[in-house]
Amino acid sequence: MMMPCDQVMERLWDFIDGELPADEEQAVREHLEMCGRCFPQYDWNRAYMRFMHNASARMTNHALRRRVFEALLQESGHNGLTP
Amino acid sequence: MPETQPLGKPGFAEEALPWMDAVHRFALRLTRSGEEAEDLVQETYLRAFRSWDQFERGTNCRSWLFTICRNTHLHERERASSRYEMTETDVTGAGDAARSLVNQRALAAQSPDDFFKQIVDDRLLEAIDSLAEAYRETLILSDLADLNYAEISEVLDIPVGTVKSRLFRARRQLRDALLIHGMKSAYADVRLVTDRGS
């Protein structure tokens, strides 16, 4: 028997976050493949996660890496990095 | 790439340094200030470096760093202001119900990826910053730093159930904030076209 919509909605973020036990994950996946009501919500949440991961990847700071490494070198009693 | 051997603490460079960007993202949203965030990251790594002998190898270095980062931030803030209080704000007020209805309609009107493509990073960060602190730090640890529920529970020292409920509410609030921004932008575009046409 297919898992009902309300139970799928309760588990939707856990499913997307990869936090469900294998049997529940399978049940939610099967439901989403078949359900026209739940799938759009899933689709939105997945798009949100893709968006956040892409934003996360853009936020890197090379100057900070160097600054922290310099501080660690000083802490360990070494001279700084060569400019 | 800097040489990693001179640090003199075996394993530190290999295990701790790769998480610097993630710690920085967390610090940035905790402090809401670029300069303070960089100071916080540096202090986090210095503290981690000094305590490296206490770190149990083979356990989760990333969670350990986030815990140090958060504790350092809280400590600094407490020092700066004795009036610090952390409250679990209930955000499901009457306004949210009406807003949610509008947002449900907006959700149906366009494809998810098209919607998110129009959001610029500044607007995302603004929306994250507008969340209550308890929600903000949970959302950042999950969606920007990619920690799982158990790791977030460890860093924030709260039960996994609380992690899930905070995350659920934080994501909903963030989505609502972004949707409202999207609708305002669409309205501004219409106004612009109308004004040009008149």
Q: What does this 3D model show about the protein?
A:
The complex is a heterodimer of chains A (83) and B (198). Chain A has 83 residues and is an all-alpha fold. Chain A has helices at 5-16, 22-34, 38-58, 62-75. Chain A is elongated, with a radius of gyration of 22 Å. In chain A, 12% of the residues are buried. The model of chain A has no long low-confidence stretch (mean pLDDT 86). By secondary structure, chain B is mostly helical. In chain B, 72% of the residues lie in helices and 0% in strands. Chain B contains ten helices and no strands. In chain B, helix 8 (133-144) crosses helix 10. Chain B is elongated, with a radius of gyration of 20 Å. The N and C termini of chain B lie far apart (57 Å).
Short synopsis of the structure:
The complex is a heterodimer of chains A (83) and B (198). Chain A is mainly alpha-helical and 83 residues long.
Q: Could you give the distance between the termini of chain A? A: 66 Å
Termini of chain B, distance in Å?
57 Å
Biggest beta-sheet profile of chain B: none
Overall average residue pLDDT of chain A: 86
Rg of chain A, rounded, reads 22 Å
List low-pLDDT spans of chain A.
none
Oligomer: heterodimer
Please provide the count of β strands of chain B. 0
- Percent of residues in β-strands of chain B: under 5%
From the helix content, strand content and strand pairing of chain A, which structural class follows? mainly alpha
Q: Estimate percent helicity of chain A.
A: over 70%
